[in-house]
Structure prediction request, 203 residues.
Amino acid sequence: MPTNDKRVDAYIAKSADFAKPILNRFRDLVHQACPQAEETLKWGVPHFTHKGVMCMMAAFKGHCRFGFWKGDLIFDGGKDSAKCGQDTREQLRRITCLGELPADEALSRFIKKAAALNEAGVKSPARKTVPGAKELVVPDFFMAALRKNKKALAAFEVLSYSHKKEYVQWIAEAKREETRQKRIATTMAWLAEGKPRNWKYER
Prediction:
């Protein structure tokens, strides 16, 4: 029987009513697919570990999000990922009701693959970069603000590279300190709700 972390119990209890059954369902599936999985809290949100971090879940104002630590390997390559792939990965970033969750069979398959990768000691592949392209550098002042807001930090950590870059560039391009601080405050608020930089233009 899995040992539930009381901090995760408290996190779910404090979540919005719509989020509780979604979080509980994902939690149950993790323990069914990987009975050895342990629960913990990282960056203020629930994570599941087995020989390393496997996956996480988070609740925001209007949706829930699930992320796999080695998502590039789980969703991009191999037979297991061919049936769902990136569509499922994107779907898991914004779940508003139980009916929007992928089928239990699919989710269990991804959880088992996450566990198997950790058991085999497989590391996440290095990100492919375009020759001459620079790595994304997050300014210290932005990271300092993120560390003061656990929800925002958790959301930022699971954003895609392009979405992270949009926030970093928007803040870095501010010419006045006052403008920069306003953008940081706005970023913290949007991230705390799990929103990407250009959420207003997404359908």
Remarks:
- The domain at 6-119 is CATH 3.90.1150.200 (Aspartate Aminotransferase, domain 1).
- Residues 78-85, 129-133 have pLDDT under 50 and may be disordered.
- The beta strands are 38-42, 45-49, 53-59, 64-68.
- Residues 74 and 81 are 6 Å apart (CA to CA).
